[in-house]
Design a protein that fits this description.
Largest sheet: 5 strands, mixed
CATH class: Alpha Beta
CATH topology: STM4215-like
Shape: elongated
CATH architecture: 2-Layer Sandwich
Structural class: alpha+beta
Number of domains: 1
CATH superfamily: Phage tail protein-like
Strand order of the largest sheet: 1-2-3-5-4
Distance between the termini: 5 Å
Number of strands: 5
Strand content: over 45%
Number of helices: 2
Helix content: 10-25%
Length: 146
Protein backbone atom coordinates (compact mmCIF):
# COMPACT_ATOMS: atom_id res chain seq x y z
CA UNK A 1 0.00 0.00 0.00
CA UNK A 2 1.13 3.52 -0.75
CA UNK A 3 0.19 6.64 1.20
CA UNK A 4 -0.97 9.76 -0.60
CA UNK A 5 0.74 12.13 1.87
CA UNK A 6 3.94 12.90 -0.07
CA UNK A 7 2.20 13.30 -3.47
CA UNK A 8 -0.46 15.52 -1.89
CA UNK A 9 2.17 17.76 -0.28
CA UNK A 10 3.96 18.02 -3.64
CA UNK A 11 0.67 18.82 -5.42
CA UNK A 12 -0.16 21.52 -2.86
CA UNK A 13 3.31 23.04 -3.27
CA UNK A 14 2.87 23.14 -7.05
CA UNK A 15 -0.66 24.57 -6.76
CA UNK A 16 0.45 27.31 -4.35
CA UNK A 17 3.47 28.16 -6.52
CA UNK A 18 1.17 28.73 -9.50
CA UNK A 19 -1.45 30.64 -7.50
CA UNK A 20 0.89 32.90 -5.52
CA UNK A 21 3.44 34.73 -7.65
CA UNK A 22 5.85 36.60 -5.42
CA UNK A 23 5.70 33.94 -2.70
CA UNK A 24 8.41 31.34 -2.19
CA UNK A 25 6.71 27.97 -1.67
CA UNK A 26 8.62 25.31 0.26
CA UNK A 27 7.77 21.62 0.68
CA UNK A 28 8.67 21.20 4.33
CA UNK A 29 9.93 23.53 7.03
CA UNK A 30 11.59 26.92 6.64
CA UNK A 31 15.30 27.24 7.29
CA UNK A 32 17.89 29.87 6.49
CA UNK A 33 19.31 27.74 3.67
CA UNK A 34 16.05 27.38 1.73
CA UNK A 35 14.37 30.73 2.41
CA UNK A 36 15.23 33.46 -0.08
CA UNK A 37 12.10 35.62 -0.09
CA UNK A 38 10.37 37.74 2.58
CA UNK A 39 7.07 36.07 1.65
CA UNK A 40 7.12 32.31 2.22
CA UNK A 41 4.49 29.57 2.24
CA UNK A 42 5.38 26.19 3.70
CA UNK A 43 3.58 22.91 3.12
CA UNK A 44 4.43 21.26 6.41
CA UNK A 45 3.46 18.69 8.97
CA UNK A 46 0.66 16.17 8.60
CA UNK A 47 -1.68 14.78 11.25
CA UNK A 48 -3.97 11.94 10.32
CA UNK A 49 -5.33 8.46 10.73
CA UNK A 50 -5.52 5.36 8.57
CA UNK A 51 -7.96 2.50 8.71
CA UNK A 52 -7.93 -0.81 6.85
CA UNK A 53 -10.97 -1.42 4.70
CA UNK A 54 -13.22 -4.14 6.02
CA UNK A 55 -13.83 -5.69 2.62
CA UNK A 56 -10.21 -5.92 1.51
CA UNK A 57 -6.97 -6.11 3.44
CA UNK A 58 -5.16 -4.81 0.36
CA UNK A 59 -6.58 -1.28 0.73
CA UNK A 60 -7.01 1.26 3.48
CA UNK A 61 -8.48 4.70 3.83
CA UNK A 62 -6.62 7.64 5.26
CA UNK A 63 -7.74 11.06 6.40
CA UNK A 64 -5.33 13.80 7.40
CA UNK A 65 -4.68 17.51 7.58
CA UNK A 66 -1.67 19.17 5.99
CA UNK A 67 -0.46 22.19 7.98
CA UNK A 68 0.49 25.20 5.88
CA UNK A 69 1.98 28.53 6.95
CA UNK A 70 2.34 31.83 5.16
CA UNK A 71 4.95 34.20 6.54
CA UNK A 72 5.40 37.80 5.35
CA UNK A 73 7.77 40.53 6.44
CA UNK A 74 8.10 44.23 5.66
CA UNK A 75 10.84 46.57 6.86
CA UNK A 76 9.75 49.63 8.78
CA UNK A 77 8.14 50.42 12.12
CA UNK A 78 4.75 51.43 10.70
CA UNK A 79 4.07 48.48 8.42
CA UNK A 80 2.01 46.09 10.59
CA UNK A 81 -1.34 46.67 8.91
CA UNK A 82 0.26 46.43 5.46
CA UNK A 83 2.05 43.16 6.19
CA UNK A 84 -1.04 41.68 7.87
CA UNK A 85 -3.18 42.55 4.84
CA UNK A 86 -0.54 41.01 2.56
CA UNK A 87 -0.38 37.75 4.53
CA UNK A 88 -4.18 37.49 4.67
CA UNK A 89 -4.46 38.12 0.91
CA UNK A 90 -1.98 35.29 0.27
CA UNK A 91 -3.95 33.01 2.62
CA UNK A 92 -7.23 33.76 0.82
CA UNK A 93 -5.60 33.11 -2.58
CA UNK A 94 -4.11 29.80 -1.36
CA UNK A 95 -7.42 28.66 0.13
CA UNK A 96 -9.25 29.61 -3.06
CA UNK A 97 -6.74 27.71 -5.21
CA UNK A 98 -7.47 24.51 -3.27
CA UNK A 99 -11.25 25.04 -3.25
CA UNK A 100 -11.33 25.74 -6.98
CA UNK A 101 -9.08 22.88 -8.07
CA UNK A 102 -10.89 21.48 -11.13
CA UNK A 103 -11.00 17.87 -9.94
CA UNK A 104 -11.10 18.36 -6.17
CA UNK A 105 -8.44 15.68 -5.74
CA UNK A 106 -5.37 17.84 -6.47
CA UNK A 107 -4.60 15.53 -9.37
CA UNK A 108 -3.31 12.83 -7.01
CA UNK A 109 -4.35 9.21 -7.53
CA UNK A 110 -6.26 7.83 -4.55
CA UNK A 111 -7.36 11.21 -3.20
CA UNK A 112 -11.12 11.36 -2.79
CA UNK A 113 -11.21 15.02 -1.80
CA UNK A 114 -9.08 17.88 -0.51
CA UNK A 115 -10.46 21.09 1.02
CA UNK A 116 -9.19 23.79 3.37
CA UNK A 117 -10.52 23.30 6.89
CA UNK A 118 -11.59 26.94 7.02
CA UNK A 119 -9.73 27.52 10.27
CA UNK A 120 -6.73 29.82 10.41
CA UNK A 121 -4.53 31.61 12.91
CA UNK A 122 -2.94 35.01 12.37
CA UNK A 123 0.17 35.81 14.42
CA UNK A 124 1.68 39.30 14.23
CA UNK A 125 5.17 40.17 15.47
CA UNK A 126 7.29 43.30 15.55
CA UNK A 127 11.03 43.83 15.70
CA UNK A 128 13.03 47.05 15.49
CA UNK A 129 13.80 46.35 11.80
CA UNK A 130 10.34 45.36 10.60
CA UNK A 131 6.87 43.92 11.04
CA UNK A 132 5.81 40.33 10.38
CA UNK A 133 2.61 38.36 9.93
CA UNK A 134 2.15 34.59 9.94
CA UNK A 135 -1.04 32.84 8.84
CA UNK A 136 -1.37 29.16 9.67
CA UNK A 137 -4.05 27.02 8.02
CA UNK A 138 -4.71 23.40 7.09
CA UNK A 139 -5.98 21.36 4.17
CA UNK A 140 -8.10 18.29 4.97
CA UNK A 141 -7.60 15.26 2.73
CA UNK A 142 -9.55 12.00 2.42
CA UNK A 143 -7.86 9.27 0.40
CA UNK A 144 -7.78 5.60 -0.44
CA UNK A 145 -4.49 3.72 -0.17
CA UNK A 146 -3.97 0.93 -2.67
Amino acid sequence: MTSTVAPVKAALAALFTAALPGVQVIYGPIDTQTTTDPNVLTVGDVLGAAERDSLSYATASEAYTVACSISCGINGPDAQQTVTELAMSFYIAAELAVREHPTGDLGVAGVLGAQPTGEFELVETAEPTGRYALVQFSVYVQAQRT
